[in-house]
Task: structure prediction
Amino acid sequence: MVSCEPLNRILDGKQISKEQAYEIFEFSKHNSDAIYKTANTLRNLHKKNTITFSKKAFFNLVNLCRDVCGYCTYKAEPGEQKASMMSKKNVQELSALAKKYHCTEALFVTGERPEEKYPEAKAWLKENGFSSTAEYLVYASEIALDQGLFPHTNAGNLTKSEMNDLKKTNVSMGLMLENSSERMSEQKMPHYLAPSKTPKTRLQVLSNAGELKIPMTTGVLVGIGETPHEIIDSLFAIKDLHDRFGHIQEIILQNFQPKQDTWMKNMPSAEENYFKTMVALARIIMPQMNIQIPPNLSPNSYQYFLDAGINDWGGISPLTQDYVNPEFGWPQIEFVDEHTKNAGFELKARFPIYPEIMNMTSPYLRDKMTPIMDKAGYVLEEYWR
Ligand code: SF4
Result:
């Protein structure tokens, strides 16, 4: 068999450079099995046979957004049927219901600073006693935490001071890098009308989170018109941040799926083999990282992506839909459990913070998790099943 020197380096426990990752990508065009095997070996070495997920409720807090991304169906205009501005009462009720279902994660999602574009959002926040979406997030996170859930906020580019406020109640936070290439913001590209997605801004927010010691989830969106090297560059940009601060807890690889009400509706979905190669490269570039793909975007490919070295299925909700990908329902947890088991792995529920980064969060939040945490830092099996 033809060998690839950088792959051997990785298996010897050494790091690879960006150029070597490009070389692996070229090699994979003719020897894809070798890179999947390497990714598998690395996952088994660092994660054993554990595959995780987070049992969550999705709080679609405010889905108006000042930006426009070419692929986004989450964002709504005021008055549209799908527009959501969750009242305090709704937050309270969903928190109570999620607790009843033994969810552990309260995923709070909003558009990017809706109050800066829409007078309706500004007025609604004011009526409810808040001057910004971030202030409402602080309040909503307190409600969820009081009910026994653990907040994880994904609200776009928050300021350092807003993140510092949310850190008191959020065990981790999320911000997708999407891609580190400035080209994605050029005319006719997906982020042309989304200034919040400029890589420099996103990387600065992720770096601020590192300085604040906030465990962060980030990731890349695959198949939006990027080149393979631009995905590799993005993975290295994330690696650099993690090397500096040690705060990246997981990387999500999300495969682009065209949505009917977006201007990218006629673009093809991310090609499955290309996506799988990028997933395997993520594992190869960061062997110890938690690598996640959402199970609902590739519903028939559980074994296929386990073979590419992932170790996490992300958040799965037994009671709320995926508002970012509404056409793809969450699978039943039992279904994911069965497929994971059939592939030779054990499914465990994690908190919205991974065990290995647990000491980054406050003792106050750790104490709240302790009664339902097992010795390894996962959610007690008898609690989530
Ligand atoms: S992906 Fe996020 S920033 Fe872009 S339009 Fe949708 S809600 Fe706004």
Summary: The chain is about 40% helix and 15% strand. The pocket of iron/sulfur cluster is lined by residues 65, 67-69, 72, 74-75, 111-112, 156, 194, 196 (CB under 6 Å).
